[in-house]
Amino acid sequence: MTDTSPAPLQSEPLDQFLCFSVYATGLAFNRVYKPLLDRFGITYPQYLALVALRGGDGQTVSALGGKLHLESNTLTPLIKRLEAAGLVTRTRDKQDERVVRLALTDAGRSLIDDALGCIPAAMLEATGMPPEELQALNHKLAALGAALRSDRAAPGGAVD
């Protein structure tokens, strides 16, 4: 008796790695974001920082770093470039001089409001996916990221 089931499709070995799929998707996102952000003269990490700061002035550098999952050695130069561009201000906390607080300037607020007025719709269109599917995928990826950042994610796990 012969097996008549179709042979499994041969795929690239990397396609079996979730981490590679996420990485390759991230690169694809960056290629789509770049021309959209070039119009505003900002990079993707700067865009994320401005979006996070739009949530409220007076956030600390460390709080912003936590939101963006960035270390201070990466975040500080990014903030300095935003400050040099006139998009954010940095001020020392009056109670604790070690703490630096951030705020959007009027130009920064205007830029990010303009960007948010067109970029999300352009990205939605670029995906070709319905919003509800993207929202579900985003929730799953956020949960995966949280699990990988938690203490439970020990080296040597079997994710890929």
TrEMBL record:
| Domain HTH marR-type, residue spans | 15-146
Keyword Thylakoid in annotation: no
Pfam families per UniProt: Staph_reg_Sar_Rot
Where in the cell is the protein located? Cytoplasm
User: Origin, by domain of life?
Assistant: Bacteria
Which segments cross the bilayer?
Answer: none
InterPro entries in the record, alphabetically? HTH_MarR-typ, MarR/SlyA-like, Transc_reg_Sar_Rot_HTH, WH-like_DNA-bd_sf, WH_DNA-bd_sf
Under SUPFAM superfamilies, the record lists:
Winged helix' DNA-binding domain (SSF46785)
User: Which keywords does this Swiss-Prot/TrEMBL entry list?
Assistant: Cytoplasm, DNA-binding, Transcription, Transcription regulation
Picking any one GO molecular function of the record gives:
DNA binding
Q: GO biological process: what's one of them?
A: response to stress
One Gene Ontology CC term in the entry = cytoplasm
Write down what this protein is called.
MarR family transcriptional regulator
Please name the source species: Sphingomonas suaedae
Per the UniProt record, the lineage of the source organism begins with: Bacteria, Pseudomonadati, Pseudomonadota, Alphaproteobacteria, Sphingomonadales
